[in-house]
Amino acid sequence: MHESTVSRVTSNKYMLTPRGVFELKYFFTVAIASCQGGDAHSAEAVRHRIKAIIAQESAGDVLSDDDIAVRLKETGINVARRTVTKYREAMNIPSSVQRRREKRLWLTGDQD
């Protein structure tokens, strides 16, 4: 079946599971190609990697979306900077500029 057909059919439909209610679209994630021609990566797995990369940032080394895309490419995940931005925003993670400001404020103890 074509991706758009699955998307249309699963719109506004939900499934009750022992772990909660999920929209059917949750179970049909987009595959992201591998750089080395290996197995594709799910969008959910890529979001998890982005979150992990950002969690490991230090105050002096906050990564831009471009930097994150390069790091992902080094691990075999081929995504564009725009995709990193889209996933980061969907997870409510601030931009590198905002994260840098927040980390500086946290280090100086000036949270006013």
Your description of this structure?
Helix 3 crosses helix 4. The chain is 48% helix and 11% strand. The protein contains 5 helices and 4 strands. The mean pLDDT is 84. The longest helix is centred in the middle third of the chain and has 13 residues. It has 112 residues and is mainly α. The protein has 2 domains: 29 residues, no CATH class; 61 residues, Arc Repressor Mutant, subunit A (Orthogonal Bundle), CATH 1.10.10.
The residue ranges in which pLDDT falls below 50 over 5 or more consecutive positions are none
> Biggest β-sheet, characterized?
2 strands, antiparallel
Strand content: 5-15%
CATH first level of the largest domain: Mainly Alpha
Instruction: Indicate how many domains the architecture comprises.
Output: 2
How far the N terminus sits from the C terminus, by CA atoms, comes to 54 Å
Count of alpha/pi helices = 5
Number of separate strands: 4
The amount of helix comes to 40-55%
Quaternary structure type: single chain
- Counting helices, strands and paired strands, the structural category is mainly alpha
Radius of gyration: 17 Å
Succession of helices and strands = HEEEEHHHH
User: What is the name of the CATH architecture of the largest domain?
Assistant: Orthogonal Bundle
The CATH topology of the largest domain comes to Arc Repressor Mutant, subunit A
Which word captures the global form? globular
Give the strand line-up of the largest sheet. 1-2
Overall mean confidence score, pLDDT = 84
